[in-house]
Design brief:
alpha/beta, Aspartate Aminotransferase, domain 1, Aspartate Aminotransferase, domain 2, 2 domains
Length: 364
């Protein structure tokens, strides 16, 4: 007879109902080509490495000190880049922490939250953690977002642009129209992939007090390992976010991440070159997949979503895995027969194309 674990009585009862977010498979095996978590294949700006080396050379005196509580030096550089004020910028430990703080600060106890039925799966996890009621709105048949499908009774809305699973982006003008028509709803745009679309809603925060925009250094700036996220909004909302942050963690960004992020922001020429390279490889990869018979969604991100008319996505994922290539598969969703593939280097893309050709030839 199995004895029941008595420790369950110490948990918040809500813990037993949670279904935590499951990230893409991580591996330290360098033989694998990792195209499953949308990391930047080119890494960060060389200036970031130089800054880190300089920091470590003086680390004895630096590391004994606490970091800046509000990341003031980084916020100043970010504000200058986006032509906004420092008090319209919030910095957190990765965009996931920023998202969590936003859910707690703005969505909890304010009514129903609405987000797409197919999107970043972290959203329902956070909502359940904070007991935020939520509803999802359907996508169009082509998997694009239609904000007309949003539940009008919802108090808040969040969605990525481009969308996290499909890579499809909404024009900024359509988003602005929606924000303008819904002044009593708080709207958050998650722009983790916006740099690959060369379009952002950040300028809209000057016009609309019901809008927040979240970005990350993990994708376009190649710094997923340092965990830096940003939130943009009017000073009133940002101050509220800071109050919540300071109620449980006064130092979310460490000193190393802070100075590395400043270096990344300041290297604009590297950033533009990096984005252009990934967009160019994306176009090439999408075209080559289509030549192999795949249907590929029009991506504005650093990944593509593709499906083959004959071979199931699960079979392709397993075959790629056997060949040391990791991609992302989303079973039990409306894209269960699609694969999400990160845009890697051209060599990465040619390798996966070669392996896919081999599998397709076996079926023929």
């Amino acid at each position: 007879m199995t004895r029941k674990n008595p420790n369950h009585i110490f948990f918040n009862p809500n813990v037993n109902t949670l279904k935590p977010y499951v990230p893409g498979q991580q591996t330290n095996d360098t033989e694998y080509v990792k195209l499953n978590t949308n990391e930047n294949p080119f890494g960060p700006s060389p200036r970031v490495k130089e800054t880190i080396i300089q920091f470590l050379e003086n680390s004895e005196s630096q590391l004994r000190l606490y970091p800046e509580p509000e990341s003031d030096s980084l916020r100043k550089v970010i504000a200058q880049k986006f032509s906004i004020r420092d008090d319209e910028v919030f910095v957190g430990n990765g965009s996931d922490e920023v998202l969590s703080l936003c859910f707690l600060s703005f969505f909890a106890e304010r009514g129903t939250l609405s987000f797409p039925e197919l999107t970043y799966s972290f959203y329902p996890s956070i909502a359940k953690l904070f007991k935020i009621p939520f509803s999802t709105f359907k996508l169009k048949k082509d998997f694009s977002l239609d904000l007309n499908f949003v539940d009008q009774k919802s108090a808040s809305i969040i969605f990525p642009n481009p969308n996290a699973v499909t890579g499809i982006a909404l024009p900024v003008k359509k988003i602005e129209s929606f924000v303008c028509k819904n002044p009593n709803k708080l709207i958050i745009i998650d722009e983790a992939y916006a740099d690959f679309n060369r379009a952002s809603c950040v300028p809209l925060i000057k016009k609309y007090s019901n809008l927040l925009v979240i970005q990350t250094f993990s994708k376009s700036r190649g710094m997923a390992g340092l965990r830096i996220g940003i939130c943009f909004g009017n000073s009133y909302l940002i101050n509220g976010l800071r109050s919540v942050k300071n109620s449980f963690n006064s130092y979310p960004i460490d000193s190393l991440a802070n100075i590395a992020a400043i270096s990344a922001i300041q290297d604009e020429s590297w950033f533009e070159k990096n984005i252009s390279m990934i967009i160019e490889i994306r176009s090439y990869f999408m075209l080559e997949l289509e030549k192999l018979g795949f249907k590929v969604l029009p991506s504005s991100a650093n990944f593509v979503l593709a499906t083959h008319p004959v071979i199931k996505a699960k079979v392709l994922r397993e075959y790629l895995n056997l060949n040391k290539i990791l991609v992302r598969h989303f079973p039990n969703t409306i894209v269960s027969n699609w694969l999400r593939i990160t845009i890697g280097t051209r060599e990465n893309c040619n390798l996966i194309l070669t392996v896919l050709k081999q599998k397709i030839s076996e079926v023929k």
